[in-house]
Amino acid sequence: QVQLVESGGGSVQSGGSLRLSCAASGYTARNGCMAWFRQAPGKEREEVATIDGYGWPTYADSVKGRFTISQDNAKNTLLLQMNSLKPEDTSTYYCAAGLRPSCGYYRGSSNWDYWGQGTQVTVSS
């Protein structure tokens, strides 16, 4: 049984940093496409960043230069380092995982195979 468990959310002031983690069990993080999404109340879910099975990242324009997606293969964990946080980054953040190494099958689709339960990030001005 696959489980994705996010952690690292919290409250921070504008300009601060947080690092989110998504610990995977029953799934090998380095082999498949993984992603971070976020969704604020009343808004559509937004793809924040992806990393494919070859280690290549992509980012939403809204977070480029501020967020970094990576994997800790030893811990089988997906990471999201978030710097220079803004109030508009306030949201619930979710990790998602796919069984295929290429993200092309998953991006912009509902094809993701597994989801975490989410972790709240609140940025105050």
Structure in words:
The structure is a single chain. The protein has 125 residues and is mostly beta strands. Helices cover 0% and strands 47% of the residues. The chain is built from no helices and eleven strands. It has strands at residues 3-7, 10-13, 18-25, 34-39, 46-51, 57-59, 67-72, 77-82, 91-97, 114-115, 119-124. Strands 2, 4, 5, 6, 9, 10 and 11 form a seven-stranded mixed beta sheet that branches. Strands 1-3-8-7 form a four-stranded antiparallel beta sheet, with no helix packed on it. β4 (34-39) and β5 form a beta hairpin. It starts with a strand and ends with a strand.
List the helices and strands and how they pair.
Blueprint: E1 3-7, E2 10-13, E3 18-25, E4 34-39, E5 46-51, E6 57-59, E7 67-72, E8 77-82, E9 91-97, E10 114-115, E11 119-124
Parallel strand pairs: 2-11
Antiparallel strand pairs: 1-3, 3-8, 4-5, 4-9, 5-6, 7-8, 9-10, 9-11
Quick recap:
The protein is mainly beta and 125 residues long. The protein is 0% helix and 47% strand.
Brief descriptors of the model:
125 residues; seven-stranded mixed beta sheet; four-stranded antiparallel beta sheet; 47% strand
The general outline is globular
Oligomer description? single chain
Proportion of residues in β-strands: over 45%
| Mean residue pLDDT | 96
Beta strands, count: 11
- Model regions low in confidence, pLDDT < 50 over at least 5 residues: none
Question: Gyration radius, to the nearest Å?
Answer: 13 Å
The ordered H/E elements are EEEEEEEEEEE
Report the span from N to C terminus. Answer: 41 Å
Largest β-sheet summary? 7 strands, mixed
Structural class: mainly beta
- Count of DSSP H/I helices: 0
Fraction of helical residues: under 10%
